[in-house]
Design a protein that fits this description.
heterodimer, A: 117 residues, alpha/beta, Transcription Regulator spoIIAA, five-stranded mixed β-sheet, 4 helices, 39% helix, 23% strand, globular, B: 161 residues, alpha+beta, Heat Shock Protein 90, five-stranded antiparallel β-sheet
Chain lengths: 117, 161
């Protein structure tokens, strides 16, 4: 039980945007897998990456750190990173960490896709 | 140090995969003690961050470290959920455990800040002879189900742990 857990993540493409939808809780066991998935997506150099968190009921600081890392990577690669569909408990973590104003956060993935079209 | 019987006392190994079942246990207990949805989420977060710190820093990723978690209700001076997390890992000076500057946006280093923000008490101390002890406390809301968790402990059969 020590090799970490695979994070199930659904990926879809909409024009210039990639929508990545992790499914399940993101904690210390799963954030390494999420980091690997996001690195693979960045390797494809998308213009926009929308991370849809609608199916993520819980996230700890390791998950937040993974997304901060993704934000830094997106800026270095000229990619626009958007977080969408955050549940209240997850949004609360971003508020406490004072990251809710650092990220672009929208209500849902459909809004994020529409905003960029 | 304990002045009330534990409602829960568990021993777990320092493996990230065990965080989810511990969160589930704490979530259920918190809900039944009368914490609302947000507070319950915060309590699960605080314990998760504490255990993750032990795994990452106390045992430096080793999977065979032992961690003990206990939860009790303390009545004075206010009714509160009292959680202790103990380990045998690397010791650090409690005065050196501080949240980092949040204006410095970078990955990592948020765990202590989160724990302190969502609890009423978050105190680290060195155990003897090894490891660390963390005490987390959060006041229990006054409007809650009563009588479910009182000071009685033990099994129905013999009344002992």
């Amino acid at each position: 039980m020590t090799s970490g857990q695979e994070m199930n993540i659904e990926i879809a493409k909409h024009d210039d945007a990639v929508v990545a939808s992790p499914v399940g809780e993101i904690d210390l066991a799963r954030s390494p897998s999420l980091r690997n998935h996001l690195a693979e997506i960045f390797a494809e150099k998308p213009a926009r990456l929308i991370i849809d968190l609608a199916q993520v009921p819980y996230m700890d600081s390791s998950g937040v750190a993974t997304l901060v890392e993704a934000l830094q990577l997106s800026r270095s690669k000229g990619c626009t990173l958007i977080l969408a569909g955050m549940q209240d408990r997850v949004h609360s973590v971003f508020e406490i960490a004072r990251l809710d104003t650092v990220f672009t956060i929208v209500a849902d993935a459909a809004t994020a896709i529409q905003d960029g079209s | 140090m304990t002045d009330a019987p534990s409602l829960i006392r568990v021993e777990l190994l320092s493996q990230p995969e065990l965080l989810a079942p511990v969160r589930a246990m704490l979530t259920s207990l918190s809900e039944r003690l009368g914490f609302d949805d947000v507070e319950t989420g915060h309590l699960a977060l605080a314990v998760d961050e504490a255990l993750a710190n032990v795994i990452r820093h106390g045992y430096e990723g080793a999977a065979d470290g032992r961690i003990w978690l206990s939860a009790s209700v303390r009545e004075t001076p206010t009714r509160r959920l009292h959680i202790e997390i103990e380990d045998q890992g690397r010791q650090v000076d409690p005065d050196q455990i501080n949240p980092r500057d949040l204006d410095d946006v970078r990955p990592g280093g948020l765990g202590v800040h989160l724990m302190r923000e969502v609890t009423d008490t978050c105190e680290f101390e060195r155990r003897t002879p090894t490891g660390m002890r963390l005490v987390l406390e959060k006041s229990i809301p006054t409007a809650r189900p009563s009588g479910r968790y009182d000071k009685s402990t033990g099994t129905p059969e013999n009344g002992s742990p």
